[in-house]
Amino acid sequence: MQLNDQQLAASRFKSGIASVLAVPGAGKTLTMTNRIANLIHEHHVPPETILALTFTRNAAKSMKDKLRSIINSTSSRVTLSTIHAWAMWLLKEEGKTFDLLHGKEQLRFIREIMKKHKIKISPRIILRDINLAKNNLISPADMREMNQEDFIMQKVAEVYEAYENEKKKKFLMDFNDLLSEANSLLQNNPSIREKYQELFQHVLVDEYQVRRLVV
Ligand SMILES: Nc1ncnc2c1ncn2[C@@H]1O[C@H](COP(=O)(O)OP(=O)(O)OP(=O)(O)O)[C@@H](O)[C@H]1O
Ligand SMILES: [Mg+2]
Fold first, then answer.
1. CA count, 13 A, side-chain hemisphere, 107
2. Where do the domains of the chain lie?
3. Which atom from ligand 1 is nearest to the alpha carbon of 33?
4. CA 137–ligand 1 middle distance (angstroms)
5. 112-123 pLDDT per residue, tens
Protein backbone atom coordinates (compact mmCIF):
# COMPACT_ATOMS: atom_id res chain seq x y z
CA MET A 1 0.00 0.00 0.00
CA GLN A 2 1.31 3.44 -1.01
CA LEU A 3 1.15 6.02 1.78
CA ASN A 4 0.53 9.62 0.70
CA ASP A 5 3.09 12.33 1.51
CA GLN A 6 1.58 13.35 4.85
CA GLN A 7 1.11 9.75 5.96
CA LEU A 8 4.67 8.98 4.93
CA ALA A 9 6.09 11.95 6.87
CA ALA A 10 4.19 10.95 10.03
CA SER A 11 5.17 7.31 9.69
CA ARG A 12 8.85 8.23 9.38
CA PHE A 13 8.89 10.48 12.44
CA LYS A 14 11.49 9.06 14.80
CA SER A 15 11.36 10.61 18.26
CA GLY A 16 9.88 13.51 20.15
CA ILE A 17 6.23 14.47 20.40
CA ALA A 18 4.05 14.30 17.29
CA SER A 19 0.31 14.59 16.89
CA VAL A 20 -1.64 13.48 13.82
CA LEU A 21 -5.08 15.02 13.40
CA ALA A 22 -7.24 13.77 10.57
CA VAL A 23 -10.86 13.08 9.69
CA PRO A 24 -12.40 9.62 10.27
CA GLY A 25 -11.11 7.05 7.81
CA ALA A 26 -8.17 9.20 6.69
CA GLY A 27 -5.61 6.51 7.52
CA LYS A 28 -4.46 7.41 11.05
CA THR A 29 -4.34 3.80 12.23
CA LEU A 30 -2.57 2.73 9.05
CA THR A 31 -0.02 5.53 9.53
CA MET A 32 0.59 4.62 13.16
CA THR A 33 1.03 0.96 12.24
CA ASN A 34 3.59 1.91 9.60
CA ARG A 35 5.36 4.12 12.10
CA ILE A 36 5.76 1.14 14.43
CA ALA A 37 7.20 -0.90 11.56
CA ASN A 38 9.59 1.96 10.68
CA LEU A 39 10.73 2.37 14.28
CA ILE A 40 11.67 -1.30 14.31
CA HIS A 41 13.07 -1.73 10.79
CA GLU A 42 14.46 1.69 9.91
CA HIS A 43 15.45 3.02 13.33
CA HIS A 44 16.32 -0.32 14.97
CA VAL A 45 14.15 0.29 18.00
CA PRO A 46 13.64 -2.90 20.08
CA PRO A 47 9.95 -3.90 19.69
CA GLU A 48 9.72 -4.48 23.48
CA THR A 49 10.21 -0.75 24.09
CA ILE A 50 7.17 0.23 22.00
CA LEU A 51 3.78 0.76 23.64
CA ALA A 52 0.81 1.28 21.31
CA LEU A 53 -2.51 2.20 22.92
CA THR A 54 -5.99 2.28 21.44
CA PHE A 55 -9.39 3.05 22.91
CA THR A 56 -11.52 0.13 21.75
CA ARG A 57 -10.80 -3.59 21.66
CA ASN A 58 -11.73 -3.63 17.97
CA ALA A 59 -9.16 -0.97 17.17
CA ALA A 60 -6.50 -2.91 19.11
CA LYS A 61 -7.33 -6.06 17.16
CA SER A 62 -7.36 -4.31 13.81
CA MET A 63 -3.97 -2.76 14.55
CA LYS A 64 -2.56 -6.11 15.64
CA ASP A 65 -3.72 -7.67 12.36
CA LYS A 66 -2.31 -4.81 10.28
CA LEU A 67 0.98 -4.89 12.13
CA ARG A 68 1.28 -8.64 11.68
CA SER A 69 0.79 -8.25 7.95
CA ILE A 70 3.64 -5.72 7.76
CA ILE A 71 6.21 -7.11 10.17
CA ASN A 72 4.85 -10.62 10.96
CA SER A 73 6.50 -12.37 13.93
CA THR A 74 8.19 -9.28 15.40
CA SER A 75 4.75 -7.72 15.92
CA SER A 76 4.03 -9.94 18.93
CA ARG A 77 6.92 -8.32 20.79
CA VAL A 78 5.27 -4.88 20.62
CA THR A 79 2.89 -4.08 23.51
CA LEU A 80 -0.39 -3.30 21.80
CA SER A 81 -3.35 -2.84 24.07
CA THR A 82 -6.43 -0.86 24.93
CA ILE A 83 -5.75 1.92 27.43
CA HIS A 84 -7.95 0.20 30.05
CA ALA A 85 -6.28 -3.22 29.67
CA TRP A 86 -2.88 -1.58 29.91
CA ALA A 87 -3.85 0.40 33.03
CA MET A 88 -5.09 -2.82 34.61
CA TRP A 89 -1.84 -4.59 33.75
CA LEU A 90 0.16 -1.70 35.27
CA LEU A 91 -1.84 -1.70 38.52
CA LYS A 92 -1.52 -5.48 38.92
CA GLU A 93 2.18 -5.29 38.02
CA GLU A 94 2.61 -2.84 40.90
CA GLY A 95 0.91 -5.15 43.34
CA LYS A 96 -2.55 -3.59 43.59
CA THR A 97 -5.20 -6.08 44.65
CA PHE A 98 -8.66 -5.53 43.24
CA ASP A 99 -11.44 -7.04 41.18
CA LEU A 100 -12.97 -5.33 38.20
CA LEU A 101 -16.56 -4.12 38.53
CA HIS A 102 -18.31 -3.89 35.18
CA GLY A 103 -21.34 -4.86 33.10
CA LYS A 104 -24.23 -6.54 34.93
CA GLU A 105 -22.25 -6.74 38.19
CA GLN A 106 -21.81 -2.98 38.19
CA LEU A 107 -25.53 -2.42 37.60
CA ARG A 108 -26.44 -4.87 40.37
CA PHE A 109 -23.95 -3.15 42.69
CA ILE A 110 -25.41 0.29 42.08
CA ARG A 111 -28.98 -1.01 42.36
CA GLU A 112 -28.20 -2.32 45.86
CA ILE A 113 -26.85 1.07 46.89
CA MET A 114 -29.91 2.82 45.48
CA LYS A 115 -32.20 0.47 47.37
CA LYS A 116 -30.39 1.29 50.63
CA HIS A 117 -30.77 5.00 49.93
CA LYS A 118 -34.37 4.61 48.76
CA ILE A 119 -33.66 6.26 45.42
CA LYS A 120 -35.68 5.41 42.35
CA ILE A 121 -33.86 6.63 39.25
CA SER A 122 -32.64 4.43 36.41
CA PRO A 123 -29.30 2.89 37.48
CA ARG A 124 -28.00 3.37 33.93
CA ILE A 125 -28.67 7.10 34.12
CA ILE A 126 -27.01 7.32 37.53
CA LEU A 127 -23.96 5.45 36.19
CA ARG A 128 -23.78 7.76 33.19
CA ASP A 129 -23.82 10.81 35.49
CA ILE A 130 -21.19 9.29 37.78
CA ASN A 131 -18.91 8.42 34.84
CA LEU A 132 -19.30 11.89 33.39
CA ALA A 133 -18.47 13.47 36.75
CA LYS A 134 -15.43 11.24 37.28
CA ASN A 135 -14.12 11.95 33.81
CA ASN A 136 -14.26 15.62 34.66
CA LEU A 137 -12.67 15.10 38.10
CA ILE A 138 -15.86 16.18 39.86
CA SER A 139 -16.13 14.65 43.34
CA PRO A 140 -19.46 13.83 45.05
CA ALA A 141 -18.97 16.97 47.19
CA ASP A 142 -18.41 19.08 44.04
CA MET A 143 -21.53 17.57 42.48
CA ARG A 144 -23.58 18.51 45.53
CA GLU A 145 -22.12 22.02 45.53
CA MET A 146 -22.74 22.52 41.80
CA ASN A 147 -26.38 21.42 41.97
CA GLN A 148 -27.69 22.97 45.16
CA GLU A 149 -31.14 23.64 43.76
CA ASP A 150 -31.50 20.34 41.92
CA PHE A 151 -33.12 17.68 44.09
CA ILE A 152 -32.39 14.84 41.65
CA MET A 153 -28.71 15.73 41.29
CA GLN A 154 -28.43 15.85 45.09
CA LYS A 155 -29.67 12.26 45.10
CA VAL A 156 -27.24 11.30 42.33
CA ALA A 157 -24.41 12.77 44.41
CA GLU A 158 -25.55 10.73 47.39
CA VAL A 159 -25.42 7.51 45.35
CA TYR A 160 -22.10 8.56 43.80
CA GLU A 161 -20.53 8.99 47.25
CA ALA A 162 -21.88 5.67 48.53
CA TYR A 163 -20.78 3.91 45.31
CA GLU A 164 -17.20 5.16 45.71
CA ASN A 165 -17.08 4.15 49.39
CA GLU A 166 -18.55 0.68 48.82
CA LYS A 167 -16.13 0.00 45.99
CA LYS A 168 -13.14 0.93 48.14
CA LYS A 169 -14.35 -1.25 51.00
CA LYS A 170 -14.69 -4.25 48.71
CA PHE A 171 -11.46 -3.75 46.73
CA LEU A 172 -13.35 -3.16 43.49
CA MET A 173 -12.50 -0.88 40.59
CA ASP A 174 -14.66 0.14 37.66
CA PHE A 175 -13.31 1.07 34.20
CA ASN A 176 -12.90 4.72 35.17
CA ASP A 177 -10.94 3.80 38.28
CA LEU A 178 -8.44 1.84 36.16
CA LEU A 179 -7.48 5.04 34.36
CA SER A 180 -7.55 7.39 37.34
CA GLU A 181 -5.68 4.96 39.63
CA ALA A 182 -3.02 4.25 36.99
CA ASN A 183 -2.69 7.97 36.41
CA SER A 184 -2.17 8.79 40.09
CA LEU A 185 0.19 5.84 40.54
CA LEU A 186 2.46 7.23 37.81
CA GLN A 187 2.02 10.84 38.85
CA ASN A 188 2.68 10.39 42.55
CA ASN A 189 5.54 7.88 42.40
CA PRO A 190 8.59 9.11 40.48
CA SER A 191 10.45 5.81 40.84
CA ILE A 192 7.55 3.80 39.40
CA ARG A 193 7.09 6.36 36.62
CA GLU A 194 10.77 6.23 35.72
CA LYS A 195 10.68 2.43 35.57
CA TYR A 196 7.95 2.50 32.90
CA GLN A 197 9.51 5.46 31.09
CA GLU A 198 12.64 3.35 30.81
CA LEU A 199 10.69 0.30 29.67
CA PHE A 200 8.49 2.05 27.09
CA GLN A 201 10.61 4.52 25.17
CA HIS A 202 8.03 4.98 22.39
CA VAL A 203 4.39 5.50 23.32
CA LEU A 204 1.88 5.75 20.46
CA VAL A 205 -1.80 6.46 21.02
CA ASP A 206 -4.23 5.65 18.24
CA GLU A 207 -7.39 7.26 19.57
CA TYR A 208 -8.38 9.19 22.62
CA GLN A 209 -11.61 10.64 23.87
CA VAL A 210 -12.16 13.93 25.59
CA ARG A 211 -15.43 13.89 27.49
CA ARG A 212 -16.94 17.14 28.54
CA LEU A 213 -19.70 17.77 30.93
CA VAL A 214 -22.68 19.27 29.12
CA VAL A 215 -24.35 21.90 31.26
N1 LIG B 1 -2.64 5.75 1.40
C2 LIG B 1 -3.57 4.82 1.38
N3 LIG B 1 -3.69 3.99 0.32
C4 LIG B 1 -4.65 3.04 0.31
N5 LIG B 1 -5.54 2.83 1.30
C6 LIG B 1 -5.46 3.61 2.37
C7 LIG B 1 -4.49 4.66 2.47
N8 LIG B 1 -4.68 5.27 3.66
C9 LIG B 1 -5.71 4.66 4.27
N10 LIG B 1 -6.18 3.66 3.51
C11 LIG B 1 -7.30 2.75 3.81
O12 LIG B 1 -8.39 3.51 4.32
C13 LIG B 1 -9.07 2.77 5.33
C14 LIG B 1 -9.13 3.61 6.60
O15 LIG B 1 -7.81 3.68 7.17
P16 LIG B 1 -7.59 3.73 8.75
O17 LIG B 1 -8.42 2.71 9.43
O18 LIG B 1 -6.11 3.68 8.96
O19 LIG B 1 -8.15 5.19 9.00
P20 LIG B 1 -8.40 5.92 10.40
O21 LIG B 1 -8.07 7.37 10.18
O22 LIG B 1 -7.66 5.22 11.47
O23 LIG B 1 -9.95 5.72 10.57
P24 LIG B 1 -10.84 5.93 11.91
O25 LIG B 1 -10.97 7.40 12.09
O26 LIG B 1 -12.14 5.26 11.56
O27 LIG B 1 -10.11 5.25 13.02
C28 LIG B 1 -8.33 1.46 5.52
O29 LIG B 1 -8.95 0.45 4.79
C30 LIG B 1 -6.96 1.79 4.96
O31 LIG B 1 -6.29 0.63 4.53
MG1 LIG C 1 -8.34 4.36 13.28
1. 7
2. 5-95+188-205, 99-170
3. 18
4. 34
5. 999 998 888 899
